[in-house]
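Example 327, ligand thiamine diphosphate.
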Amino acid sequence: MTSKLSNAELLALYRQMALIRRFEEKSAELYAEGKIGGFLHLYIGEEAIAVGACKALAPDDHLLTAYRDHGWAIARGLPPGPVMAELLGKATGVSGGKGGSMHLASAAHRYWGGHAIVGGHLPLAVGVGLQIRYEALPHAVLCVLGEGTTNIGYFHESMNLAALWKLPVIFLVENNQYGMGTEVGRASALTNIYEKGCAYGVENQQFNGQDVVETYEVMANALAYARQEGPVLLEAITYRYVGHSMGDPERYRTKAEIEFWRERDPLCRIEDTMTAEGTASFDDFAAIQREVAAEVDEIVRFAEESPEPPDAALWEHVFVNPIGERE
Ligand SMILES: Cc1ncc(C[n+]2csc(CCOP(=O)(O)OP(=O)(O)O)c2C)c(N)n1
């Protein structure tokens, strides 16, 4: 891990990853207590991708993700208290408590969700990219998806149009090895997902998604290319330590496999490198972990003490087509 980032920047990236991990661990507890409804997909193990990628994004760039979105929301700068409140369905949630875990969004952060339909957000990302080119704006779009999503029609339609119109869209595949319980090689003809870019003449690259610095550097280069030239397909090699969603019996993999990946943990990677270089000590990391634990306790308190949305909120933000209305 060689880097142009300062020690302070590296520690800030570590802190963000630690915050996301703690946030996710607490979410699992709250889910088990019945305080979070619906589905809950955790990001534990994959934190370096969101944190490294969001460091490279400019404030005016756009971000769209699938349902494994808590880490992305926090890395993009959405306040974690209202993110947790959204998971609990509270009025203070980022989506007013009406979206829940899979529908985090914030126009102020140009974070357009949080999408539950596999691949559904890819054409939307292309639409945002088209607007940017149409208005000759300097921005880019980051569209995050799982490797399973690259087998869906939307992926191919989106890659085709993004390439044809040279849109500033980065398709970032988080290859965590499984789509629900299906291992990548059992569902995809190509297991090097980045090679799918070749079919559309799209620039492509694979990288180590467990390395936050590498992620940042790859993203920074891809963004510069996308703004000038056109789309990029990136594949981050990663792993989720926990089930696809809560209640996944995980019969499709072994404990040894999980252990193999835990040894490549993105937080430990920074700890090991910085302590070996003498730029930080294990005490420094322990202090950050304590701070983050206290911060997440406060986040949970805020969310739990927040009110439910009022009944009248049922009638807000509902799209009605007046042309279709009958007398
Ligand atoms: C159109 C559609 N088909 C099926 C599902 C059910 N489903 C939810 S997640 C998922 C697996 C997606 O895997 P991947 O894209 O690799 O993302 P990951 O969960 O690994 O982050 C499936 C099939 C869905 N939500 N939408």
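Summary: The chain has a mean pLDDT of 96.
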